[in-house]
Write a structure and sequence with these properties.
2 copies of one chain form a homodimer. With about 575 residues, chain A is an alpha+beta fold. Among the domains of chain A are: about 120 residues, Orthogonal Bundle (Butyryl-Coa Dehydrogenase, subunit A, domain 1); about 120 residues, Butyryl-CoA Dehydrogenase, subunit A, domain 2, CATH 2.40.110.20; about 140 residues. In chain A, the strands form 2 sheets. In chain A, strands 3, 4, 5, 6, 7, 8 and 9 form a 7-stranded mixed beta sheet that branches. Chain A has a two-stranded antiparallel ribbon with strand order 1-2. In chain A, helix 1 packs across helix 9. The first copy, chain A, is globular and about 80 Å long. The model of chain A has no long low-confidence stretch (mean pLDDT about 95). Chains A and B meet through helix 8, helix 9, helix 10, helix 11 and helix 12 of A and helix 8, helix 9, helix 10, helix 11 and helix 12 of B.
Chain lengths: ~575, ~575
Amino acid sequence: MPYTAPLKDIRFCLDHVADTGCLAETELFAEATPETVDAVLGEMGKLATETLAPLQRPGDAGSKLENGRVRTPDGYKQGYEALAEGGWMGLAAEAEMGGMGLPLTIQTAVNEMQASACLSLSLCPLMTQGSIEALTAHASGALQEKYLTRLISGEWAGTMNLTEPQAGSDVGALKTKAEPDGDAYRISGQKIYISWGDHDLTDNIVHLVLARLPDAPSGSKGISLFLVPKYLEDGSENGVKTVSLEHKMGLHGSPTCVLAYEGSKGWLVGEENRGLACMFTMMNNARLGVGVEGLGVAEAATQHALAYAADRVQGKTSPPEGGTATGAIIDHPDVRRMLMEMKARTEAARAICYDTAKALDMARAAPEGDRKAWAARGAFLTPLAKAYGTYTGMEVSEIGVQVHGGMGFIEETGAAQFYRDVRVTAIYEGTNGIQAADLVGRKLSMDGGETARSILNEAEAEIATAQTPMTRNLAAVHEAAEDATQWMLAQNDMAERLAGSNAYLMVMSTLHAATLLHRGLRAAEAHMADDPDFYLAKIAVASYYLAHIAPEAISYAISAKLGSSLHYALTPEQMAV
Amino acid sequence: MPYTAPLKDIRFCLDHVADTGCLAETELFAEATPETVDAVLGEMGKLATETLAPLQRPGDAGSKLENGRVRTPDGYKQGYEALAEGGWMGLAAEAEMGGMGLPLTIQTAVNEMQASACLSLSLCPLMTQGSIEALTAHASGALQEKYLTRLISGEWAGTMNLTEPQAGSDVGALKTKAEPDGDAYRISGQKIYISWGDHDLTDNIVHLVLARLPDAPSGSKGISLFLVPKYLEDGSENGVKTVSLEHKMGLHGSPTCVLAYEGSKGWLVGEENRGLACMFTMMNNARLGVGVEGLGVAEAATQHALAYAADRVQGKTSPPEGGTATGAIIDHPDVRRMLMEMKARTEAARAICYDTAKALDMARAAPEGDRKAWAARGAFLTPLAKAYGTYTGMEVSEIGVQVHGGMGFIEETGAAQFYRDVRVTAIYEGTNGIQAADLVGRKLSMDGGETARSILNEAEAEIATAQTPMTRNLAAVHEAAEDATQWMLAQNDMAERLAGSNAYLMVMSTLHAATLLHRGLRAAEAHMADDPDFYLAKIAVASYYLAHIAPEAISYAISAKLGSSLHYALTPEQMAV
């Protein structure tokens, strides 16, 4: 895979699109100076490019379950060790626990590079990051000392155990039991879809497991969170069995396990029956993390397609009059269209993901009085980052296959693998439908639409900065988003909002990406003289998004405002006639 | 797979959407009475539902190359034999050669069902259909007697050999050689991407191979077509070697071969150096056939998702006030949105495919004076059918995965297989980019835009029939299409047209589908009393398309008219900065 970490693009997005300079001005992140950030990103760029990216294609052969243990693909162990030795698991973890205490925003950029290089392997540290967050916020000092430090060091890895066969999007339906046993508990039940539920990368695995205490209330209010290690302190097995691995369409390197807990010893994390709240602590970050997976695959697929198109010779090329012909398919107008679309969609997803991370960081680091607004912004943007980031990964990798022509359908090129791997990101960590429901339900209602209004206002302020054709494109999207938002807020029947939720999510994602890219475009114009080729590229790609892609919001807005009448015009029986 | 051939939907599309009643009024197709057509469709419906559909999942295990021969998945041979015994290869072939002489339109409906049931297996008869057409039009009487009759009977199967490693979309670059040898030729060279290039379903395989005669002009004007059997008349091997099978993302049951011709004996089909024209005889039909593959997968994926959604219980469901709750996920507004979108997109693709087939049939069967206009219509609609049909297959199977949630990413459910299988349809038989180029180039220019104008006029006439909200939706699409068409016709630099070609193809496909579905909607209203549940479904699904999906044309039209300036704002080097 010809992946090269796009450090300049990342830096540009941080500085001029998501405008994250405010972070280093806070006390909490005072150490995240531009120099430190550059050093960190440069290190990961090197690691991702040289060490992780070469694991992508061979990893497709898959992790295997042999004699009850998962064997990961050749090279994964060395890749993981490089990550652990570099201290990458603890990038955003607290310094007193051995972490670096850097902003989630920087973690996000680092995660993007890992996802681009080798998505399957990157899920292992990502699961660990989630565990670190949950234990930092909710575990007792004793548990933190014993487990958290080893997760941060990368010595051990973490997992998340939520889903059961009858409890997917509806986590409250889970049945795994926890029985008190001295100072601890005995956990029994079966969990499915456990990413990296077993592997050979670390000496121990720390499972975070949702289960029910005896006599717990039914539904989501009766769920508690437990820490269950694969091996106990004396080195003995803790009754966690890997029953099987799922046979998936993609992400073959990442073992997706069915785990059976057979009276496994576990320790309560947080309060009894508050497990879902503990999980939700990290849910925003995990959802952002999955959006970044989509972004990472989009970036990698774009680079991959660009390299192929610049090399593959086929047919007489026909650039416009005066255009230069290279003789490769990159000269064909429709191939050029596909490549510009890939680049533009990728930069849009990056803008939203980084801007979301900034808001989540500022919710912790901003002056006390501003935190609530930043938190609301982060909460509002998170479903956008998750759904639009993963939608972008799917869309861009789909185009990447197309750029390859017949070779795109043949596995050897790797274009198909991006397309297969990224597909699940629109599903796990809350399907994109759940994200859309979260947006039009909780996020639009939490403050009477105030945060939605602030996103619209931000677009208006951006529109006021210029009067170019690109500004007019942004204004058209803004008008559509304004209408759709007013319509949504006027609905009292939640089903009416939900009917248009997916379309509304696309409208708001497109608007926000367009606003951010317009801001970046202005910055690129101002800096043009410093690095003309680079800033010209920023301007062209942002313009492509604003002119060719952002108008999608207009069609989506029409659909978003139609309500549910056509959705329910037929009964399920009539649908199947 | 719970596929049931949608005979009523197919019949409705034939009668009221694509309005194919005119076929039986012609002399050529006088025997294609409604009764005959019903009998034929009913037979295929039974075969597809009971015999072919069960082969879909097991076929994913794939065809294998063993000792130089391809072994197909278990059950494929029985499936193929049922097709051959039923006379299905010769449905549209001439009666004097043993065919049934039915319209391509009926063949199209039959192909849809085969593609829905088991796409991989269906490609084998589809390749044979193409061979039958080419040999009917161009082969000598002797070749027809020896080979054509056995292809029509299904005793032998046919293949198409165009592509070589350096000659994909640019067929003219091919290098395979043909040297005269008595009354025949010796063929030498390597061909790739040969669907069903070898298999164990028939005793012999008839390859149609494009190759160059000695001293032939370079490029596409120096290519001739040869018939090369796998086995010669005396039963001896003819030097056709299966070098390898491609490792593909999907369509595993269909063996995609690299074939080496090592001095294989072949016979000229048609005139010397006119091979590409011979291939083009069947190109329109083959392109339509691939569009129908997309349609078939869309229909199957829709049925599959609908069955899952009506069965899977997850979360509290929230239909609108007054709506009935089944308790399954089909009650969720966004799941309902996905299912209605799947149904609507599928019916749109069916409308375009059947209408294209009708035009191609009428180009042969209509009164002499009308044939040219029908042929022009068929030529104009073919790239729409191919690209929009396959786009629909991809989009609908993508949604089908999403409806399944986590189970969609697990291979066992089969949702992922639809998504993987259908992906290549947007690539082979001319990538969708090639279709778009054909549309804005040859098809828009062949008559100064007259046929495009007739499609726009047809929409206008449909708009004049009613004044409902759905009619206004159609009118909005028409306005966008009118603008885009005028813009396209005003461009002299072909690169400007090509830059917007994909978007323009989507605009015109959406317009034509919307016109046809609006027509169907009116017919359903008129017939309502006959079968209320069925016609209500037709109205609801057509309305969903017109209200929620057709507005996409408005965004596409904006992009279609922007020209190439942003595509070429960067050099290839600047794109890779």
